[in-house]
Amino acid sequence: MNINRHVSRVTTLAVGTAAAAAMAVSPASAATNWKEVNTNATWKCEPTMQHSVYPGVGFQGCVVMNAQGDAQVVLVVTNNGPKGVRLGGSIASGFGSSTTCADSVLNPGFTRGCFAPTKHVTPGYVYESRVTVKVNDSVQHGRSLLTARG
Q1: Could you give the 3-state DSSP secondary structure of residue 122?
Q2: Which residues, in sequence order, are bridge partners of residue 35?
Q3: For position 8, what pLDDT does the model report?
Q4: Which residues pair with 85 in a beta bridge?
Q5: What is the DSSP string of 70-82?
Q6: Which has more pLDDT, 15 or 73?
Q7: How confident is the model over 32-90, as pLDDT tens digits?
Q8: Are 72 and 96 in contact (CB under 8 A)?
Q9: Which of 4, 39, 43, 73 suits 95 as a labelling partner, its CA being 20 to 30 A distant?
Q10: In angstroms, what CA-CA distances link 32 with 8, 59, 113, 147?
């Protein structure tokens, strides 16, 4: 059987300059939608990219899908650099798993994930998602992630 596939294009969400200027840096770990990351077989991730301005800070986009066809996109950031960085970002998804990642601090030696909401993925469609990370006000985009449910 031939199933028509559609690609839903999404525009990457930008984090506003005003929010960056208002960001307060504190020694606390990442807050709000930033959480510890524990991956397993349900996680499909793009290769880790090193931030072009801050070596030692790597990031990647991941899609986590359950057996019921629900999925969420996660922006994963690791700081292997020598000092803490101000962190923010966004997730844009064609299936609705999109969010703005709260401004926070990521200390050296830590990995955190910004979790977008879980949404249902319609069978027979291919969706595009993209993550964007902001490290000390320097914005970098991840690769496109494709999500499909057979």
Answers
A1: coil
A2: 113
A3: 31
A4: 106
A5: EEEEEEEEEE-SS
A6: 73
A7: 689 999 999 999 999 999 999 998 999 999 999 999 999 999 999 999 999 999 999 99
A8: no
A9: 39
A10: 28, 18, 11, 25
**Residue 20 has which token pair?**
């960056």
3-state secondary structure of 58: strand
CA 96 to chain centre: 13
Residue 28 has pLDDT above 90, yes or no: no
Residues in CB range of 78: below 8 A, 6 or more apart: 48, 57, 58, 59, 110, 111
Radius of gyration of the chain (CA): 16
> Is the whole-model pTM more than 0.85?
no
Tell me, what amino acid is at 87? L
- Tell me which amino acid residue 6 is: H
